[in-house]
Amino acid sequence: MIKRLLLALVLFLPGCAPAAEQYQKEPYQKPPAALKVVDEEADGRRRTLTVESPALGREATVEVLLPKGWREGSRHPLLLLLEGCCHTGVDWISRGHADDLTEDLDLVVVVPEGGRAGFYSDWAKGPKWESFHLTELLPLIERKYGATDRRAVAGLSMGGFGALSYAARHPGLFRAAASFSGLLDASRSDADYIAQEQSRDLWADDAEIARRNPTALAAKLKGLPVYVSCGNGEPGPLDSTTSRDDGEAVIERQNRTFVEAARKAGVRLTVNLYGPGTHAWPYWTRELEKALPMLVEAVR
Length: 300
Hints:
Structural class: alpha/beta
Strand content: 15-25%
Number of domains: 1
Oligomer: single chain
CATH class: Alpha Beta
Distance between the termini: 43 Å
Shape: globular
Number of helices: 8
Radius of gyration: 18 Å
Largest sheet: 9 strands, mixed
Number of strands: 9
CATH topology: Rossmann fold
């Protein structure tokens, strides 16, 4: 059932690529403080925040991993880790081992809730996830934990879409980006699976979709180091299943389309289309570990 839902979400992403001159630069501007911390739990270097978000109209969860040398008033680069679809929690720590992978790194790691299918967008009718993450949450993390403006962003599946879309749509906000099994070509190529009503609530029209589509925005990533990886859906070395993952196969096609567009645009790409592998946590953990040296170097 989960794979069918993932496939439906992968395939409903409609869009088209308008001419480059239609895009407007969207500089990042810090708004007045609006995000309220309702609760904070501490466990070693981990902080679990419950925040009240005006952009979402509700409370949300944010996990923060502080570097070993963190102290009140210290300053550190930031890594924003974005979640995938189909649930409302934060899994990069509990399932993706981001705490172990970043334990010795000079990074404030932030893992915010992304919604069951928020797609890192301000919805036409509904929550404003992009505003929550970029205009509410980042300033809070800077004030509360000393994160600097030397930022990188990475994500899995829907979060891969978010990472590259955020980096492209907000020039100068991030210094590097990475996508693991990301939904990188928001197109209507498989219309039989489109969830029409939800897509209207999420994105008002095709032009709005294209303004967030990583493939259409590939040229906006020029100058940033970008890491892209995914499997082909066939069972691989880290799988316990023997079944083919059709969702990951579709994602690989999207990634190949993005890679072609990004290479034509002169983007500084590191690509790992590793062949056999399904849409599963062991691969995303492995790929984050591989991408971290590039991300850390970019924010030094």
